Amino acid sequence: KHDLASADRLNTWYYEDAPQAVRPMLEAARRIRSFEEVQGGLDEGSALYEARRCLSCGNCFECDNCYGVCPDNAVIKLGSGKRFRIDYDFCKGCGLCAAECPCGAIDMVPEAL
């Protein structure tokens, strides 16, 4: 939906750590005799778990962090699935919302004079 946020814009503290998924490897003797995949895939349960760990890079998933940290009540909740709107009449540009956004969905753009 939006441009991807670079890794430096993500707040990984928001996400839980998880062990690296172990994928089965084809033994060396079978590798030299076949065209089978060397590295196996994930089973359905592991694949679903990994998919749920998506960092939503650049896309809001409505965690409410921006809403909770705004000292000026400039972040307005639009309802489930509709995300948020910033009321620029109240926003003073402190950047707390952007700093606390775990997925980098908020860009601070200087106002044109």
Task: Write the SSE topology.
Blueprint: H1 28-31, H2 44-52, H3 65-69, E1 75-77, E2 84-86, H4 96-100
Compact summary:
This protein is mostly helical and 113 residues long.
Tally of strands: 2
Spatial extent as radius of gyration: 21 Å
Taken in chain order, the helices and strands follow as: HHHEEH
How many strands, which pairing sense, and closed or not: the largest β-sheet?
2 strands, antiparallel
Sequence of strands across the biggest β-sheet: 1-2
- The helical percent reads 10-25%
Helices and strands: which structural class?
Answer: mainly alpha
Low-pLDDT residue spans: none
Termini separation (Å)?
Answer: 29 Å
- pLDDT average, as an integer? 90
Helix run count: 4
Quote the beta fraction. Answer: 5-15%
Please state the overall shape, judged from the principal axes of the Cα atoms: elongated
Could you explain how this protein is built, in words?
The chain has 113 residues and is mainly α. It has a domain at 19-52. 20% of the residues lie in helices and 5% in strands. The protein has 4 helices and 2 strands. The protein has helices at 28-31, 44-52, 65-69, 96-100, and strands at 75-77, 84-86. Strands 1-2 form a two-stranded antiparallel ribbon. Strand 1 and strand 2 form a beta hairpin. 11% of the residues are buried. The model has no long low-confidence stretch (mean pLDDT 90).
List keywords for this structure.
mainly alpha; 5% strand; 113 residues; 2 strands
